[in-house]
Amino acid sequence: MPQKFILDAMLGKLARWLRIMGHDAYYRPYYKPGEIRSRVNEGRVFITRNLRCSECRKEAVFLSPDQVGEQLKQMHREGYILVDRTIWFTRCMICNEPLLQAPYESLRQNVPDYVYFKNPYGISYCPSCNRFFWPGTHRQNMMARLLKWGF
Ligand SMILES: [Zn+2]
Question: Domain residue spans in the chain?
Fold first, then answer.
């Protein structure tokens, strides 16, 4: 079973990258008192950079690097994330929702013409925010960064 995470409010960038790599990363820029603890009780691993955070439990994972690539490397090194390229880009990087294959008839009005005419099949969408995602320059750039970080 892949681990699920909850990230402290300072780790928004890391949340996006974990989602890009296909991992379940719950993140809010603000948490209500007790929210982190209850998510941890549901089985999420708490990732933090804040050693003094009041809700930190013994099992919280503390990340020391500032830079997001180094944070991912630490999580990988310590066994919290596996690298599985087949799940890259399968989760919405904005809302953490698993992406679905976009129905063909929805494409014409939701993706740019050049995408629609070039490759209407590799397109997915997020059922939560209704954003559409497709292989393209943006994805290639993210992929290049992941590879540069050694994933
Ligand atoms: Zn979304």
Answer: 4-87, 100-148
